[in-house]
Amino acid sequence: MARLVIVSNRVAMPRERASRAGGLAVALKESLQQQGGLWFGWSGEVADTPDPAPRRARQGRIDYAVLDLTPEEHKGFYLDFANGILWPLCHYRLGLIEFRRSAWESYLAVNARFAEQLVPQLRPDDIIWIHDYHFIPLAAELRRRGVQNRIGFFMHIPFPAPEVLAALPGHDRLVRDLCAYDLVGFQTRGDVRALTEYILHEAEGTVIGNTSTEDVRVSAFGRDLRVGAFPIGIDTADFAQLAAHEAGSDETQRLSESLVGRSLVIGVDRLDYSKGIPQRFEAFHQLLGSRPEHRGKVTFMQIAPISRGEVAQYRKLRSELDGLTGRINGKFAEFDWMPVRYLNKAFARNSLAGFYRHAKVGLVTPLRDGMNLVAKEYVASQNPADPGVLVLSRFAGAAREMKGALIVNPYDTEHIADALHRALIMPLEERRQRWEAMMAVLRVNTIAHWRETYLAALQAEGHPPQVLDAAGR
Predict the structure, then answer these.
(1) What is the pLDDT of residue 21?
(2) Using an 8 Å Cβ cutoff, are 193 and 228 in contact?
(3) CATH class of the domain at 236-444
(4) Which of 156, 201, 245, 449 is catalytic?
(5) What is the rounded CA–CA span in Å between residue 95 and residue 88?
(6) pLDDT in tens, 227-238
(7) Annotated catalytic residue within 177, 369, 415, 418
């Protein structure tokens, strides 16, 4: 069996606490353990004089190899380009982009350095799986160094429409580098369509198959590759079992007692402008203002651990949410009830599972999101006898699968407020029907299914059908 090589922006070495690993990291690790392989990427550390070769470790059948970034690389590659340009671009926030050629050059240079360090560690029959927007150019750099292995790429965040992508200087180079892969995977059909439309209309390439399907082949820049939708899932059975166990935990009981019988609406997000958190707060404010029957009977708890705190936009967002919390609580709070609980701290996975199970409403309203696994975890956590209701943004990738959710436009705060009201008064029978429909999907589209389906596609040659030209003929 061929060895699997996984490349990701952040690689947790074996000595780091397992409790910090999310579902994706666990899934990738399981795949490496089954097949044997190498996990390569950034250590998460910044060093003035990084080691000339990767630091290595081994655990079971997995080899780990990590590189540090220099302060200049961390700023140019990671902060300024990956998170300061690609992240807002892919989330359609063009007004937040400040393009600097130095950042673009740093992004390309770091990808070249990582390729240079990876090549000596590769074997001729390795299968290489590269993850996310930090490493889009990596396959092209590997090809320039003679690597002929099958290389796949998976984009965890949304891929922008051609008109949006074209706002990025160097967009043609970025897509040319994407075409160095054998398989490019996305979360949704919409992402597949965005790339294939770029290939047709900007790159003057060809698309083999129907662009509205989940799996097509494209030909551009002298290469043929597959493009497909592989919606990521969770370990549904494991998370459901965890939530049932955590329902009786001390933390969950403390939360329950503190609510004194009130309904809980919960939101859990990394503190990021793409998550629609200010709009969510405004919607809850409108709910209390327009539906006085909920005052004193429902509490909204938003968990939003701080990330990228050094970036100005994130500091501004935190200040805005502090102000909204104060305004809502100042207007509606009673001596024995605080409408909003806003927590800038992270909680362990098991704690969140218990909180989800206790919440009557899961509020997941990103302005744009590749998938959003919180939505899936919330559903999997519910008590089958008395499930809660998921209120979900139409712009989350999960909305394509979670048809039993109340789907909302995250920009329409009155729409969200109406959905919250409906969720809070929804009859038990309707809640059960909606929950069962979503769980049926989650039981099939697990994270193991995602991993196995993607890797099978990466290793398959495939035979393309009809060829379309730029006019779709």
Answers:
(1) 52
(2) no
(3) alpha beta
(4) 156
(5) 8
(6) 999 999 999 999
(7) 369
